[in-house]
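To close the chapter, one final illustration. This time we ask the reader to focus less on the individual chains and more on the assembly as a whole: which components sit near each other, and how the overall shape emerges from the parts.
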Amino acid sequence: MSAGVLFDVPGPRARARNRIITVVASLLLLGLAALFVWRMNAKGQWAGELWNPFLKGQIWRNFILPGLKNTLGAAAVATVLALIFGALFGIGRLSDHWWIRVPCGVIVEFFRAMPLLIMIFLAFFLPNKISPVIAESSFGTLQRVLVDNFFSIFGVEINAGTVTVPAFAAVVFGLVMYNGSVFAEIVRAGINAVPKGQAEAGYAIGLRKSGVLLRILLPQAVTVMMPAIVAQIVVLLKDTAIGVIIAYPELLKQAFREIPPNFHNNILQAGIVVGAIYIALNLAISRLAVWLERRSRGSRRTAAPTMGAGGAPPAPGMSATGTATGAD
Amino acid sequence: MRLRRFGALIGAATALSLAVTACGSDSEKTDAKSVVQKAKDSKKITIGIKYDQPALGLKKPDGTFEGFDVDVARYIAKQLGVPESGITFKEARSENREAFLGGGQVDLVIATYSITDARKQQITFGGPYYIAHQDTMVRADDNTITKPQDLKGKKLCKAAGSNSFRRVTEPPPDGKLNIKGVNLVDASGYSECAAKLKTGAVDAVSTDDLILAGFASQQKGSFKVINQPFTDEKYGVGIKKGDTATCKAVDDAITKMYSDGTAKTLLDKYFGGTGLKPVTTVPPFETCA
Amino acid sequence: MSLSDLLDFGPFFDNIDAILRGFWATIRLAALAGVFSLVIGTVLASLRVSPVPVLRAAGTGYVNIVRNTPLTLVLIMCSLGLNDTLGLTFSDDSGTTYYWWAVLGLSGYTGAFVCEALRSGINTVPIGQAEAARSIGLTFSQSLRMVILPQAFRAVIAPLGSVFIAMIKNTTVATAASYSEVVTEMKTLLDLPSFTSGAIPLFLGVAAGFLILVLPTGYFFGWLAKRTAVAR
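The assembled structure is written out below.
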């Protein structure tokens, strides 16, 4: 982002003014930092015993790294399943048959409108509450067979008619439903962004619908979609932190809920350390997104140069900011 | 065609996992053993405890666990013939403990688990190994709250997943004291409640006296318990529904724990000097069913 | 209990006042956070394109830190960290102080996304516009205020709509930060021992509530985007 076109090369007066603004802004920022430091000091939050735990290997070994592993595990499983969900429903929404298109659209729009936390609660609390009733009804056997043969892959258990969903499965369910719907929209927009002539040329050489989709549209759409998908994966990774509310032992839960009871409730310190870990992790993934965007940009061109100073504006619905704003 | 091959791969993987899990669940059902038998044979046991409750069940920085519940668990395991190295601890929270027992992910739950009629429908309880009482904890220098009725107009902590606050603010059946005008402040659990109490974000925390005494002993001088108990909380050992053999073995272990003085030693170790007057006689047991 | 009891809306309507109270708390939070995040986002975007390097760095740093931190952590740090531990309270009344921290945390977080949306909007404004503004002698703040931002805003109304929809849904996370909104009320009902058969209606009701909040917001922004689209 070059902002150079917005202002002239500063003259002597502008330079003087910019210097004043620089000084004032720096003082303001330093003042804020000083206020924070002073307040921390007033409340005794700089005490070594509150910070030292995070320098110990065993804290990392027993709390932070296992938490990180669970965070990444849930994110990885959810990403794969959400991509499958997104591909199916995104393509489904483009179907020529209304009886495929409409239900796919309804499902995608519904899950995009639902808060992630509600979906996680749904998976976590509802089966436990309603399964005993179902077990007594004529669907009891069906419920048991379904749980035993399919849902058990995700660790779901059934005992004496009561179905229980582990926190991991509930978090993954929520993430897949929400992010899968977002992926579906990305897929749809990506396929729509492929010039119409491509599909027409495909039909002209005698390909069927599936051939056009799989051999012509999808391969081209994937390169366009990549940046948006990676941006959404960052969102997904951050969203795993909501798991703390149902006590899924991910990073935030282990570092923020289990360390402080041992060290005089060093909540603030734990939060700062965990925040730094999340930021580092997400910046690494974002770097990857930027790199992918650069790579896929080469082949695309726009009509008029814009304020972006080189490089195409993202395709409609494709901009990282347009899609990467999901639940937290 | 790359995509099609990928789809086939997923299909195959799903089919395979279906087949594997189907077999697994069949064999699991045929040889369901009582926990006491399994413990004797394999010298291993998995016990659900709390991870964030000082003096009851706390995960320590070195990855070990300590607390009254943890030591009771170790004692019972020893009586069932399991050495300390054979015990695996798992975190049991109010959201998942019935599920863990039912699904066999844990063999016993010893985690400030109150025996109630509703829970007795779902699981079998050994013990109780202690009878706690709901009490109220305030800051050590706070003299304005001496009885539960003083909570009117004060900020009371409401821990997620716990119904203790209801016994203060609501009438029976869900509550008890029905004190109106209490300001409830949400928190994720009792650790957070204790943190909020210390900083003044709440004025009082009301729940089982053992939990409160745990915080009082961990952060000495910060809190005091007002000693106005108003309920009985029978802490039981959670066992899979119908496993009466294990229930009886657990009851025997608890009787022995009190008769050989271990119970008194443990109660003194974890709650000594907190003002809590622990009962050192065996509590009356529930029937094993 | 039989299957039909699962769809009995009786327990749901018995507790409708608690649920409506929760939704009112959600709306109160979303409305104020919407206004604040728009202000914060515009300020941040202006900082990020300003001629002064310190301001640019401050804006960039803020956006990179906040955008990569989970909202759950941001909100918990506001309530547990800043309010409780550091004692930076807005009021002695716990409901009020946690409300304002939830508003501040949510708008600070959403503001970073508004900023990024606006920046991509600035990217769509043709260079000629900025050059014309400069050539008639407008200063940086004048050209930003009168030429660039008005066009940028109109270009990003649809993405801003998604940001606000995400924000409305994100209000649910405030339940982890001691702010009692609809999810808190829902969880309290689910914890209630006597609330056994009303779980499905409860979820349906809350889901319907969010559809009522989110769908019109989406249509409104879609309509606004079409109405104000820049013809180019």
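Chain B touches chain A at residues 1, 3-4, 10, 17-18, 21-22, 25, 51-54, 58-63, 91, 93, 95-96, 98-99, 102-105, 122, 188-189, 191, 194-195, 198, 218-219, 241 (CB under 8 Å). Confidence is low (pLDDT under 50) at residues 16-31 of chain B. With these observations in hand, you are ready for the problems at the end of the chapter.
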